[in-house]
Model the fold of this input.
Amino acid sequence: MSTKAVVNLSTGLEDAERVTVAFLMAVGAAEQGRQTMMFLSKEAVRLAVPGVAVATACDGCPPLPELLDRYERAGGRYMACPICVNAKKLDSGTLIAGAEVGGTVPLWQWIGDEGATTFSF
Done:
């Protein structure tokens, strides 16, 4: 059985509830000791920029900064799609802790032969 988890997120703050659910899933995996990678594409790459993920999606939802902090403390990592980062003219040198720019080949290399449990949002 795989001990890795990949959470694929393509939505940004235009759908803060979806982002929150994706982070809850990633935090849960990371806090259970799974090696966890969030693959950010499309608008989600903006979440890897410091100061962007500041929303609270709904009454009773945990604030995104709290979820990002928990994810980082649990060892969670991010891989931001390089095409999306470039298309949005983001500075890849100033991403949040645990984030790197990487596409499909680095993601498959990280997954390796054991595979990974995946979720897409």
